[in-house]
Design a protein that fits this description.
heterodimer; A: mainly beta; six-stranded mixed β-sheet; B: mainly beta; seven-stranded mixed β-sheet; four-stranded antiparallel β-sheet
């Protein structure tokens, strides 16, 4: 079985400050981890993924994520938040051999001017 | 490459009716998955098709069905609509050439059942 937890329904941050959106996972074997962003009334857009290698993964729009195997976490980060980053963020996990990712419930990021 | 295209974007139906949603995947992608998104339940997996065969199925009643054509385009059908079926239905395609392939989503079809 595989599962994902996003412990925060909402994250608030001031523009220009660093942001972190948390994600923890549970999967047997090596995980494949993904972050997606969703703007209102739109589909999900792929941000970044971790497959293997460096624990720090860089993605689109200045986002990065840190894979921590011991803590089974894959937190999304950005050094300086923009108001335009306000959106719904989803973490997903897939284990090798599984074609279907499991998504977290999503975290609403609100960046205040 | 063109992205994943879902039609229609918006749909209003009456309880008891049936509805068909369409999804055209990215060219070359053979896997198409469908998700239901609601504020209360988040993103829930409906089913996945690969080369015209349903390969995986989520925990939804039989009123929800789908199919995939030889050109990889997929349709999803919901019969005997209920108010609780109101949701954003998302289609995602993937080439699944390896374990690290991500899914690409369409913009979704917003279904409202009245």
């Amino acid at each position: 079985a595989q599962s994902v937890a996003q412990p925060e329904d909402q994250v608030n941050v001031a523009e220009g400050n660093p942001l972190t959106v948390k994600c923890t996972y549970s999967v047997s074997g090596n995980p494949y981890l993904f972050w997606y962003v969703q703007y209102p009334n739109r589909g999900l857009q792929f941000l970044l993924k971790y497959i293997t290698g460096d624990n720090l993964v860089k993605g689109s729009y200045g986002f990065e994520a840190e894979f921590n195997k011991s803590q089974t976490s894959f937190h999304l980060k950005k050094p300086s938040a923009l108001v335009s980053d306000s959106a719904l963020y989803f973490c997903a996990v897939r284990k090798g051999g599984s074609y279907i990712p499991t998504f977290g419930r999503g975290t609403s990021l609100i960046v205040h001017p | 490459k063109a992205g994943v295209t879902q039609t229609p974007r918006y749909l209003i139906k009456t309880r008891g009716q049936q509805v068909t949603l369409s999804c055209s995947p990215i060219s070359g992608h053979r896997s198409v998955s469908w998700y239901q998104q609601t504020p209360g339940q988040g993103l829930q997996f409906l089913f996945e098709y690969f080369s015209e065969t349903q390969r995986n199925k989520g925990n939804f009643p039989g009123r929800f069905s789908g199919r995939q054509f030889s050109n990889s385009r997929s349709e999803m059908n919901v019969s005997t609509l209920e108010l609780g079926d109101s949701a954003l239905y998302l289609c995602a395609s993937s080439d699944l050439t390896g374990p690290n392939t991500e899914a690409f989503f369409g913009q979704g079809t917003r279904l409202t059942v009245v």
